[in-house]
């Protein structure tokens, strides 16, 4: 797997709240940015610095509902 | 001060085309220039979110084969302004809808409102059918029941034949809406204003109202007032003056619900606020769809809020976990307060969950309920504590001020 | 010789891992989690065991074809019911393999396919397992009364428990659950009738469709059939 020398800056997590069914794997894999609410649904701090990128990607891939995505943050 | 939208209206019957043109003057030819004129006018959407109408028009005008949807769903139970406009001055709404369609280059207008309103609109269309082949094609369709059915993506879903539920945005309807086409979903009142801006221009529009929210606004005033109904006021009017407009109070007031069921409870005297978002926002409120409910002193704010929370929880489209579970949990806590069955920690739960559900849905439903409950927690703190400790008060048994229709999902399924 | 052992060994191991994968899949969908076994671990094991099954089956197929003792072509491993060696029972193996490939490929492409299409295909996992089981019992040349029988029965018990747990989930429509329960019961009854009268009875090799040439060779060197 080729990796860029520096991860692209300014990526953010995007949750599809309709698709999310509260499996909670994302919070296990990325506790730095995701905690579960009292009903088991993720509350997300979307900013993903380069240091967390790989963990964030893992959380995205693990989501059983495909409800989580990592996107380039919009300018501004 | 003179009415604009409601000018020339007498009684509840629709104004015919002849009288309509006599009151408002002839409709000028509309070009894409109207988009800039509406932008200059600073018109904000009157469906609740207050989004600048000019930005929406411009975005839709950029796309190919756009559609215009006239949103007369009015899912807010305490709001009557849109149906009032449609049933009394259908030609003004049609002027605005057709002008907006021409301005963005749409050949198709979908009218979405109640059967009664649609009948009036259909009659108005028949009245102007002669000699107007250039007009965009107008289709009249029945709106869906339910509180969230008026949300613009829910309206689109309904018109596409699906359940009237909001979807995740982006893409916004302006980019990808009805059948994937760029879609202008505009509230009935907003379009009526556009019908007047097309005639009189942006400068005229801005002569009334505030700089943040220019123009006049329709408000639906209900509750403990002598003459509940739909009134036209200039934005920026002191809240305290609104009950006077509706014939004065029937009893001392305890609080005002400003902005409808998505709105906020404020002090009975309006806390010195005016009908302007910039002003209301500082108190956690918003003009919304212009709903003002005066809660009388004989009513119980805790019982009213608990019933409202239960209704709003039931009106969740049922798609997003935090909304389904969060609003349900909150309604449960409020109900325990209202019935003196609180368990230790309920006060903290109320505050914690109100914060927790905000911003967690695909649409603004949980946010709106959170706003309403946050204001209730602030304003009715004493009453909440009294109910928790001493049980029902004398006002609990009073007739409900807030109108709560039956659960719409059950109605839709029936 | 060694290849023949590898074929049987990988086949048996694949059945065990397939059983484990199915069970983990059920545990996963039931959202079991504890402090020692977090959700992502169950999910990861489910994915890993499924991929391991694929690796084992690659060896299983490769050694079968290369062994040359039985007339099995590579194409018979993928196209069911076309071969000359125990066509039905080997064909079930090919069918199970095809189903598994469909499951793996759709899972790898899940993000592109979308959840609905992926899930529709993934229900096939419950069909893949019994087909693989019957393939093992039907082609395993020393089913009677050896360890492979007990291994198969053990795996069957595990799967029945796992499917039972899945069916107890109230999230699924009652009709679907009742239908699935009836199917499982019918399958168990069919197995209970077929096993003693088929693979466990005498002369199964001939009945199963082993070519006479091999049967003859087998009679000549009995040692070979008892490996």
Question: Summary?
Answer:
By secondary structure, chain A is of the alpha+beta class. Chain A contains two helices and five strands.
Q: What is the topology?
A:
The complex is a heterotrimer of chains A (76), B (414) and C (227).
Chain A: E1 11-15, H1 25-29, E2 34-36, E3 42-44, E4 47-48, H2 53-62, E5 68-72
Chain B: H1 17-24, H2 33-41, H3 53-62, E1 67-71, H4 81-88, H5 90-104, E2 108-113, H6 115-128, E3 137-142, H7 152-159, E4 183-187, H8 188-206, E5 216-223, E6 229-234, H9 239-245, E7 253-258, E8 264-267, H10 277-281, E9 291-296, H11 301-314, H12 321-338, H13 346-357, H14 365-379, H15 381-390, H16 408-413
Parallel strand pairs in B: 1-2, 1-4, 2-3, 5-9
Antiparallel strand pairs in B: 5-6, 7-8, 7-9
Helix pairs in contact in B: 2-3, 2-8, 4-5, 4-6, 5-8, 11-12, 11-14, 12-13, 13-14
Chain C: H1 2-29, H2 39-67, H3 87-108, H4 110-113, H5 115-122, H6 125-139, H7 147-168, H8 174-197, H9 204-207, H10 212-220, H11 222-225
Descriptive account of the structure:
The complex is a heterotrimer of chains A (76), B (414) and C (227). Chain A has a domain at 25-66: 2-Layer Sandwich (Alpha-Beta Plaits), CATH 3.30.70. Chain A is 20% helix and 24% strand. Chain A is built from 2 helices and 5 strands. Chain A has helices at 25-29, 53-62; strands spanning 11-15, 34-36, 42-44, 47-48, 68-72. In chain A, the strands form 2 sheets. A 3-stranded antiparallel beta sheet of chain A has the order 4-1-5, covered by helices on one side. The longest helix of chain A is centred in the C-terminal third of the chain and has 10 residues, at 53-62. The mean pLDDT of chain A is 88. The radius of gyration of chain B is 21 Å and the shape is globular. In chain B, the strands form 2 sheets. A 5-stranded mixed beta sheet of chain B has the order 6-5-9-7-8, with helices on both faces. In chain B, strands 3-2-1-4 form a 4-stranded parallel beta sheet, with helices on both faces. Chain B contains 16 helices and 9 strands. The longest helix of chain B has 19 residues, at 188-206. In chain B, helix 6 (115-128) links the parallel strand 2 and strand 3. Residues 410-414 of chain B have low confidence and may be disordered. With 227 residues, chain C is an all-alpha fold. Chain C has one domain. The longest helix of chain C is centred in the first third of the chain and has 29 residues, at 39-67. Chains in contact: A-B, A-C. Chain A binds chain C through residues 19, 23-25, 28-29, 61-62, 64-66, and chain C through 28, 31, 33, 38-40, 43-44, 110-111, 114-115.
């Amino acid at each position: 797997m080729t990796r860029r020398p520096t991860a692209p800056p300014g990526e953010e997590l995007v949750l599809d709240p309709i698709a999310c069914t509260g499996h909670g794997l994302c919070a296990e894999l990325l506790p730095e940015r995701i905690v579960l609410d009292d009903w088991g649904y993720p509350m997300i701090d979307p900013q993903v610095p380069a240091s967390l990128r790989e963990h964030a990607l893992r959380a995205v891939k693990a989501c059983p509902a495909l409800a989580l995505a990592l996107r380039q943050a919009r300018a501004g | 001060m003179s009415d604009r939208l409601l000018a020339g209206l007498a009684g509840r019957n629709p104004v015919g085309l002849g009288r309509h043109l006599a009151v408002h003057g002839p409709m000028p030819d509309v070009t894409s220039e109207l988009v800039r004129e509406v932008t200059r006018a600073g018109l904000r959407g009157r469906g609740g979110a207050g989004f600048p109408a000019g930005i929406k028009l411009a975005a839709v005008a950029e796309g190919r084969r756009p559609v215009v949807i006239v949103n007369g769903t009015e899912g807010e139970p305490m709001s009557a302004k849109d149906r009032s406009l449609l049933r009394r001055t259908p030609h003004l709404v049609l002027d605005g809808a057709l002008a907006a369609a021409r301005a963005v280059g749409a050949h198709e207008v979908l009218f979405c409102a109640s059967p009664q309103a649609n009948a009036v609109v259909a009659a108005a269309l028949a009245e102007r059918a002669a000699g107007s082949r250039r007009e965009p094609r107008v289709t009249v369709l029945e709106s869906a029941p339910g509180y969230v059915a008026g949300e613009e993506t829910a309206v689109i879903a309904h018109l596409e034949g699906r359940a009237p539920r909001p979807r995740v945005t982006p893409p916004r309807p302006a980019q990808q809406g009805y059948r994937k086409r760029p879609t202008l979903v505009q509230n009935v009142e907003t379009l009526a204003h556009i019908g007047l801006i097309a005639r009189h221009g942006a400068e005229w529009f801005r002569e009334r109202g505030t700089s943040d929210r220019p123009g006049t606004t329709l408000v639906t005033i209900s509750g403990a007032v002598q003459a509940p109904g739909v009134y036209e006021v200039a934005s920026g009017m002191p809240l305290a003056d609104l009950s006077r407009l509706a014939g004065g109070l029937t009893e001392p007031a305890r609080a005002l619900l400003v902005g409808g069921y998505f709105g906020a409870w404020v002090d009975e005297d309006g806390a010195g606020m005016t009908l302007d978002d910039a002003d209301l926002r500082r108190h956690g409120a918003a003009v919304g769809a212009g709903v003002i409910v005066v809660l009388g002193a004989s009513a119980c704010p805790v019982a009213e809020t608990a019933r409202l929370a239960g209704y709003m929880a039931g009106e969740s489209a049922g798609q997003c976990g935090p909304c389904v579970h969060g609003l349900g949990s909150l309604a449960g806590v409020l109900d325990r307060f209202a019935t003196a069955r609180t368990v230790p920690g309920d006060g903290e739960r109320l505050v914690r969950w109100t914060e927790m559900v905000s911003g967690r849905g695909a649409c603004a439903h949980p946010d709106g309920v959170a706003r309403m409950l946050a204001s209730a927690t602030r304003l009715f703190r004493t009453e909440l504590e009294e109910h928790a400790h001493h049980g029902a008060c004398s006002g609990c048994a009073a007739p409900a001020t807030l109108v709560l229709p039956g659960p719409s999902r059950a109605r839709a399924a029936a | 010789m060694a290849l023949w052992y590898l074929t049987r060994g990988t086949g048996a191991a694949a059945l065990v891992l397939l059983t484990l994968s199915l069970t983990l899949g059920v545990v996963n969908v039931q959202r079991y989690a504890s402090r020692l076994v977090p959700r992502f671990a169950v999910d990861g094991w489910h994915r890993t065991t499924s991929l391991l099954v694929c690796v084992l089956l690659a060896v299983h197929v490769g050694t079968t074809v290369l062994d040359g003792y039985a007339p099995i072509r590579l194409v018979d491993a993928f196209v069911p019911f076309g071969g000359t060696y125990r066509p039905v029972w080997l064909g079930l193996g090919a069918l199970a393999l095809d189903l598994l490939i469909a499951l793996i490929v759709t899972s790898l492409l899940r993000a592109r396919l979308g959840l609905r299409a992926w899930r529709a295909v993934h229900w096939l996992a419950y069909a893949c397992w019994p087909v693989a089981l019957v393939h093992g019992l039907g082609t395993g040349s020393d089913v009677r009364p050896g360890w492979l029988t007990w291994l198969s029965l053990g795996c069957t018990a595990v799967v029945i428990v796992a499917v039972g747990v899945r069916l107890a989930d109230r999230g699924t429509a009652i009709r679907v659950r009742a239908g699935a329960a009836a199917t499982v019961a019918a399958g168990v009854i069919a197995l209970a009738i077929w096993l003693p009268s088929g693979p466990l009875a005498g002369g199964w090799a001939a009945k199963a469709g082993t070519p006479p040439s091999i049967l003859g060779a087998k009679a000549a060197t009995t040692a070979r059939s008892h490996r």
